[in-house]
Give the backbone structure.
Amino acid sequence: MVASGATLVVRPDSGDPAETTLKVAQILADRFGTTTNAKGFRVLNNVRIIQGDGVNLDSLRLCLSNFFHNGFSTENISFGMGGGLLQQVNRDTMQWAMKCSAMQVNGEWRDVYKSPVGDVSKASKKGRLALVRNARGDMQTLREEALAAGQVDELQTVFENGRIVQSTTFDAIRERAAAGVNQFVTSRAPL
């Protein structure tokens, strides 16, 4: 890698951005070494950091302050611009993300999941999943093998093996979204 002139870019995942980026910088400094720039700050050799999780004006300032106070140049890090820099509404606001939960290897299903040490609230569901309505009418995720007799899996296959197997129109999506909002509003109406 070094001989090619390439730069390795490392992207930390979850956790407190200021703590995580500094820890990553320290680990990379140990592994790759540093040089000192004209202002006396350490610059990582052949490697940089990009922070995309939890970026907002406050966390950005804290990351850069941590770098400054620990002798690392700001040229070691770049920041991804997500919802936090605009309005702080992102996938974490509703704790929703789509991830792989199972894979089949040689005919055997295996669980796939994420369990970040820096933020246990971002652990993902694992296994082959079904989406059902519970007794209150709310949606609930279950493992397929936990489906009771008569329960209907609301999940539908849309894309499979490189092919679209079910398509819909934008108007139909709008209608479903409006129905969902109306159901949520009426079910949560004050008594």
Observations:
- The chain has a mean pLDDT of 88.
- The first helix runs from residue 17 to 32.
- The CA atoms of residues 37 and 89 lie 38 Å apart.
